[in-house]
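Give me the fold.
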Amino acid sequence: GDMWPLLQALSLAPPSALSRLPAATPRYLRAPGVRLSLDASALSAVGEVEDAAPAPDLRLVAPAKVNLFLRVVGKRPDGFHELASLFQTVSLFDDLDFWTSPREEGAPLASLEVTPDSLGAELIPTDESNLVVRALSLYAERVPSSPAIHCRLHKRIPAQGGLGGGSSDAATALHAANRLAGLPVSQETLIEWAGELGSDCGFFLSAGTAYCTGRGELVDPRRPLPPTACYLIKPAAGLSTPSVFKALGLEPGEAGPAGADPADLLSRFEAGDVYNPDLYVNDLEPPAFELMPELRQMCDDLRKFGFQAVMMSGSGTTCFAIGMPLEEVQETWVDELQAKYDVEVFEEMFCRRIADEPSLWYTEQPPGAVLTNIEEPERGLFPL
């Protein structure tokens, strides 16, 4: 079966990621962060006035993603770009807590609050313009037997960095709604519904690794890649996705840049070649580097620190570095980078769901799973 291959990557895991590995009987690979309890005014809006919030019915994490390769196949006559990309979830998580209540006449079927200490809290909408509310509303409309749901979001994934945080939150909300309704909807259908919310949403309903085509909405879930150290470097300055595609300069009907066949890149990743820098190809890098030359300089600097592969993710501006830096700069490279560039650095790893377990989400284990053998990671975690 698909036993957690824990951890070919132990030797490569960054220290902060190691602290998230399972204890003897894990439920989560990473303990949920400290959360603020709801205040009474927030509660009264959900029709519950109590001194403190009741414990949530479900707590989930929503992972960020990177694009391990991204080929632009061409520009379609309708103006959209045809892409072929390998998407991978990483261990930078938002926290989502969900409460259910019976449906009531005149009460909202879906509501959202954002913790005050969320990243960019004041900029996050809590109405229908938020993808989480749209996801919960869409589910409620299509599954009339489902309960009303209130969600509390604690945001850690930076916005506008191409990390997919908003899409991940929406996919997590769809999964939560389905689980709280007793899993009446199939994974395939959930992926289709997610596609209506945004082109990246469906991806997060895979097991964490998927080959995505079309505009990104056609999701081919693949076997999860082995846990791999992945540092995210997020510049303060952003680039708008349309400006990057515009700088790429394709006319409708025109093919994308020449280069490696995406199917070939995919098969080489799946053969376990995650540390091969030649597989990390992003056709949006040249136009983004043109618009923001310091990004290219930053990626060059990261390579000098000794990382196995360095690339910009998606349309940017977040870049990622795979593997570990040279031993002599291990303690200093982050300070050196931040002295030169205005960036945040996150030490993360590839993460995943247990495939073929529609009732489990990212970082969740079957009850009673134990880490049995680090020497033979493919023997992984056995349910007792």
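Confidence is low (pLDDT under 50) at residues 1-13, 15-51, 376-384.
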